[in-house]
Automatic annotation (TrEMBL):
InterPro entries, sorted: CPA3_Na-H_Antiporter_D, NADH_UbQ_OxRdtase, ND/Mrp_TM
Cell compartments where the protein resides: Cell membrane; Membrane
Residues annotated as transmembrane: 6-28, 37-57, 83-103, 115-134, 140-157, 169-193, 213-238, 245-266, 278-299, 306-325, 337-356, 368-390, 410-432, 468-488
Domain NADH:quinone oxidoreductase/Mrp antiporter transmembrane: from-to ranges: 137-420
Keyword vocabulary terms for this entry: Cell membrane, Membrane, Transmembrane, Transmembrane helix
Pfam families membership: Proton_antipo_M
Entry membrane topology: Multi-pass membrane protein
Similarity field: Belongs to the CPA3 antiporters (TC 2.A.63) subunit D family.
Keyword Iron: no
Protein name: Multisubunit sodium/proton antiporter MrpD subunit
Species annotation: Pseudonocardia sediminis
Amino acid sequence: MTAASFLIALPAIAILLPILGAALSVIASRSARLQRVIGIAVLTLVTAIAAVLLVAADRNGPVVTELGGWPAPIGVVLVADRLSALLLLISTLVTLAVLVYAIDQRISDYGRETPSTTFHPIFLMLSTGVSMAYLTGDLFSLFVAFEIMLAASYVLITRRTDAARVRSGMTYVIVSLASSLLFLTTIALVYASTGTVNMADLAGRIGQLPPELATVLSLMAVVVFGIKAAIVPLHFWLPDSYPNAPAPVTALFAGLLTKVGIYALLRTQTLIFPHDRPSILLLSIAALTMIVGALGALAQNDLNRLLSFLLVSHIGFMLFGLAVFDVRGVAGTALYVVHHITVQATLFLVSGLITRRTGTVSIDAMGGLVKLSPGLAVLFAIPALTLAGIPPTSGFVAKLALLEAGAGAGVAGSVVAGVVIVASLLTLYAMARVWVRVFWGKPKEPLPDPDPFDELVVGTARTSAPMFVASAGLIAVSVLIAVAAGPLTEVTTRAGDDLIGRTPYVDAVLGVGAPGAGEPGVGR
């Protein structure tokens, strides 16, 4: 096998490895240690593959894999361009850190002694769905990727379940199934209208449809992926679903699943339904999402619900860059997604450490942790300041890119850029409120573990070293993003050029000179 053919095979290997790892985990179900080794080894290999794909895509253009030897648009293709390879890399790094954390928290086991036969296979299948969503080149395979993620996430959110978790899980599943049904309907309408579901092929065919039909299809895609990304007013399911899961599961969902929705919006709205000017509709939704999420966070006493509402708020930041619909805006969104994947996952992991020590998620029931655990205080402070966008963190770099894009997008863009600043200040206030109530004040005794025999150990009055290291590793990644802001911004800018220009993606999939790559799409 030549180097070129091996490179072409890497996108498929990135998807097949977690599937193979899941199968091996089932076979090794009697050995918890072997399951852990398999999971860590698979995710490490996928991380390395993602790094190679990112370098290759940045130097030479998208890496395209034709499955079964059938060329697009007839066959199914996998495409690793700058954006998908970058998000695959950061997502797999986060998944690896969360797995290390979960192993020490023992949610990978049934109870505290018996090895699990389900956690590791399902965890790896969730990783498969995420990788497939980033790399697929057609809408139907994207639908399959979402269904893999849905099935795996439902199992993870309801393991060792109680009534509250079943209710939240039902909300999550019902909303997800409704959005999947709408997604399938959208795919059917797109295929009926154009005769294809290949995204590169659709880049040329959607522009040939009547503008009204193209607009309807575009709005349907926004609703589908808006539900999965939890944009307002389609966000109602998230604050009720995520907080009830164990910390590593919530961290994985918050860090990855909503970002896959944002990625799908980025890909479809730039490649299939391109705009030639800022979208007032999306700008309005972005502003509403930022403010509603931030205000919702201020009303919470449950730490996980507070972080869930802040997650909703910052989805609005990413939507804002997309709504600008120019290279700077899309590049700013890509940079913000990279930053937010790490920081949001880190905050939920740190929340798990706080709960492990205090025995509660109630902010009012905590206090004085800075005296009891200075390291845990630092572990919370850094991602909290990063989320608020305080200089010189990665959050500041990403928000600055979005503000520059908004300032150049006319009056509407400048107004929403002002909302970005307001939402950032509200985020800072919410984080400061948590800091004052949880870390300052008189230390309080931890609440006892309500179930000493379940899989979650809480109320220990101590911090687990491996869980601490896993969280600190993600903080290190976030710091590295800030340190490497210059080169990373250059990569996301080139990715923005590709997304807005469309030609590199279309030419790589369909061949140089494919029709429609540079044609204007539907503007609103």
